[in-house]
């Protein structure tokens, strides 16, 4: 089932809206916010914007030294914590620590992720992109849900991507145990999962005032592309051979700060007060995309498989099984 709300609201914002426009007249002084990957790329811009508007921001980080350096002067050192999404004991250690020290969590932003990386196996032979982008964030989210219930009104923002259109969930072979590994299919599947996580969170939490949103931040060049050689980005149409942006990318790609704006809109907008369980882009709810483009230049719209509530519930159950069985 697809939410009746999966259609644009005509928010008045757009692809190149800046954080200052989204957060104008919004006071976050009484809010506690957790942002994974909040020290790099659009995550860092998200942290800066939310912190500047008064919230307490906590950053769990795999690279603690890098996070401490990048966030110096932005948030206190005591609000930066070590956590590796590929290590579930690390995730549980962070959530236990947070829950013991804090009664409420107002906003959780699952921003961290890896993209199109070489085949890597983590934990019990899990494919790394699904493990980091989905399973790690699933455990983080689930362990923080009671604190979010206590907040009375809370929001989850889960960062997906237009790449979700590459692949639905590969129900029979999620971890590429039976088929050859394909990095883009693995990434696409993980970003479908990121969206479905928000859909099921919303279903379970709305009676407690919690709402969930998935976000395509837009085309942005950040450290997320670290596994892609320049020639591959040329083939994708993102760059020219000299390493500069292609004409297409120059027109459609966003700055990192603009890339954080849809996340900020989903986390704070009063337009979303009584709705959730939708996929958003360009600071608005996205349109459903009926005809999926075969190329990698698919930048807009959401495939039904990323917002289907039945699939969202099924993935929640299947992810729980993976964790329990391992």
Description:
With 326 residues, the chain is α/β, with parallel strands linked by helices. It folds into 2 domains: 19-218 and 256-325, NAD(P)-binding Rossmann-like Domain (Rossmann fold), CATH 3.40.50.720; 220-253, no CATH class. Helix content is 38%, strand content 12%. It has 11 helices and 10 strands. It has helices at 19-22, 41-52, 64-70, 88-101, 128-150, 183-205, 230-235, 247-252, 256-259, 261-268, 309-325; strands spanning 32-35, 56-61, 80-82, 107-110, 121-122, 126-127, 154-159, 210-216, 278-281, 284-285. The strands form 2 sheets. The protein has an 8-stranded mixed beta sheet with strand order 3-2-1-4-7-8-9-10, sandwiched between helices. It has a two-stranded antiparallel sheet with strand order 5-6. α4 (88-101) packs parallel to α5, α5 runs parallel beside α6 (183-205) and α6 (183-205) packs across α11. The longest helix has 23 residues, at 128-150. It is globular and about 50 Å long. The relative contact order is 0.17. InterPro entries: NAD(P)-bd_dom_sf, SDR_fam.
In short:
This protein is an alpha/beta fold and 326 residues long. It contains 11 helices and 10 strands. The radius of gyration is 18 Å and the shape is globular.
């Amino acid at each position: 089932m697809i939410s009746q709300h999966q259609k644009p609201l005509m928010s008045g914002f757009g692809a190149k809206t800046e954080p200052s426009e989204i957060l104008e007249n919004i006071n976050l002084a009484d809010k506690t916010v957790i942002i994974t990957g909040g020290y790099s790329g659009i995550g860092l811009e998200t942290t800066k914007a939310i912190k500047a508007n008064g919230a307490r921001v906590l950053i769990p980080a795999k690279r603690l030294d890098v996070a401490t350096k990048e966030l110096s002067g932005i948030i206190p050192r005591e609000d930066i914590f070590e956590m590796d999404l590929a290590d579930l004991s690390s995730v549980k250690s962070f959530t236990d620590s947070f829950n013991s020290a804090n009664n409420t969590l107002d906003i959780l932003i699952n921003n961290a992720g890896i993209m199109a990386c070489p085949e890597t196996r983590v934990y019990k032979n899990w494919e790394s992109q699904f493990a980091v982008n989905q399973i790690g964030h699933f455990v983080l989210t689930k362990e923080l849900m009671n604190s979010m219930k206590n907040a009375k009104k809370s929001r989850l923002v889960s960062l997906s991507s237009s790449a979700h259109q590459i692949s639905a969930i590969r129900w029979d072979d999620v971890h590429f145990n039976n088929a050859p590994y394909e990095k883009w299919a693995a990434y696409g599947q993980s970003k479908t999962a990121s969206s479905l996580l928000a859909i099921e969170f919303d279903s379970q939490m709305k009676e407690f005032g919690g709402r969930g949103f998935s976000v395509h931040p837009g085309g942005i060049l950040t450290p997320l592309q670290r596994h892609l050689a320049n020639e591959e980005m040329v083939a994708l149409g993102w760059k020219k051979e000299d390493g500069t942006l292609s004409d297409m990318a120059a027109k459609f790609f966003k700055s990192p700060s603009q890339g954080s704006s849809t996340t900020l809109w989903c986390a704070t907008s009063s337009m979303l007060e009584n709705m959730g369980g939708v996929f958003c882009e360009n600071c608005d709810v996205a349109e459903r995309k009926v005809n999926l483009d075969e190329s990698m230049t698919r930048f807009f719209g959401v495939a039904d498989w990323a917002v289907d509530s039945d699939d969202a519930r099924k993935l929640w159950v299947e992810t729980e099984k993976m964790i329990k069985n391992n």
